[in-house]
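Data deposition worksheet. Section B asks for the primary sequence of the deposited chain exactly as it was used as input, without tags or linkers unless they were present during the calculation. Section C holds the resulting structure in token form. Section D is free text for depositor observations; keep each observation to a single sentence. Incomplete worksheets are returned to the depositor.
Section A, Depositor: J.P.
Section B:
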Amino acid sequence: MSECGRGRVITASSFIMLGLYAFTGTAFSPLMPALMSDFGITSSRAGLISVMQNTGGLILAVPAIFFADRFRKGWLLWWAGGLMAAGTLGMGALGFNGFPFFLAIAFIFGMGSRLVDSISAAYLADTYPERTAVWVARSHVAYGSIALLTPWIVLCISRLGLSWQWNFLLAGIVALAVLAAHRWALTGTKARADSASDGFSPRDVLSVMRRPTVLVAAALIFFQAISFTGYTMWGPTYLQLERLVDQGLAGMSITLFFIGNIVGKLMLQYFARRFSSRTMLTASPLVMGLAIALGVLLGSPIAFVLLSAAAGLAMAMNIPFSIESATRGRPDKSGAISSFLFIMAFLGSSAGGWLTGVVADCAGYSAALLAVSAGACLLALVSALLVREPRPRS
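Section C:
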């Protein structure tokens, strides 16, 4: 096969690896009641699964700021996929050994999956420099498409009479096949995305992290990640345990959420042409917060499920516009800025599942989701007060 063809195989494998990351990460939501029952744990302890995944991701994300550009990205993506596959297979084959052991394996999965997320974007940017936004958007759509199908895949596996472990085992087997194709495609490939170059120095990274626009964007992404994880992790559990609906209807909330999220990403170009970053960063968390609050306060599982689509659409806007706001005027430091912002997303994701679980243990799942809603509305207020638009040129 030609080098161009092998490059397409690597691109396709990066998309599939992102899809497997989406499946495994999203499967925790509909599987949470089964995990809590099998391990005999409370909601707050179950929230530690998210903490361990994101802690694993964070441990590799910090050095990735410096080493991602110093090694061939195609090979980095392969090694990251290997870590993710090991974690996925481990949760399926060895997770029954106890909750602490399961958390350790989730940590390994988090290391690999988060690195797949960041390195795949860098690989696409280097491979398609003139159409980076298009290809990165396609990778996000691939992620979201698998995520919205995940509850139904989990339901099908459950109705076949298979245990929750099979969700991870099957995903791990697919990951191994993809890694084999990826490894074959890397042989003899000398694409630009596989080239090595100098990275930023620590002084460069620290200087961009101290910029006010970057700090504001980092805060927005941190609290948005808390809201995202709190809602997607505990929304289906709220429906199953408080509203007493079956797993199929509860899973529909995640499906509609990611449908809305995909539609939002596809509409980003439309909104970017018509509204400022400040307007979008204010409206996005506000609409999300109101959608979550209405879903809970109306007391109807159907309303909650339908409003999940609005929450997903609104949430799709936050990160792209935050990155735009932070990198404006400093495109030469976009890599360091983006890495720092994604680290803040890791931290927020780590805290979100656990904090929401703690509130659920103390006051119930309705109160926990209303707390997520209040946090999103507060985020809208912060955006309105702190985000600044660029001054027009004279």
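Section D:
The chain has 16 helices and no strands.
The chain has a mean pLDDT of 80.
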